[in-house]
């Protein structure tokens, strides 16, 4: 009598499997939006920066070497790190453009000047 009742009871196997997989999908979604997607954006921005570099730009390598681009090739830069000392490096090994404190100061001053001009024009109106 008990066995026939157990076989007669409806099962919800399909629904139970979906519910048990839901946390896995949620973890993947969270990882995508907090880890994978920002890294993809950062890599794309780095690639755009490298593609925009030209002869004469001062750069910093991942190793910390600072130099000036003297020649641009397909996948390489020839950089001058001292007078008459040139090395060839892969484009992917470039960390960032090099800016000195005086460059940063002039950028900040020009940004402040633009802001002051905008503020003063708002006060006149």
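Q: What amino acid sequence fits the structure above?
A:
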């Amino acid at each position: 009598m008990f066995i026939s009742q157990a076989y007669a009871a409806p099962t919800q196997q399909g629904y139970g499997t979906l519910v048990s997989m839901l946390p896995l999908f949620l973890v993947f979604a969270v990882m995508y939006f907090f880890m994978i997607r920002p890294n993809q954006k950062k890599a794309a921005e780095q690639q755009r920066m490298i593609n925009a570099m030209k002869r004469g730009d001062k750069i910093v390598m991942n190793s910390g070497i600072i130099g000036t681009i003297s020649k641009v090739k397909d996948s390489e830069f020839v950089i001058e790190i001292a007078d008459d000392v040139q090395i060839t490096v892969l484009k992917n090994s470039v960390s960032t453009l090099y800016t000195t404190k005086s460059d940063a100061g002039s950028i900040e001053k020009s940004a402040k000047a633009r802001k002051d001009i905008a503020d003063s024009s708002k006060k006149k109106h």
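Q: And what stands out in the fold?
A: The chain is about 55% helix and 20% strand.
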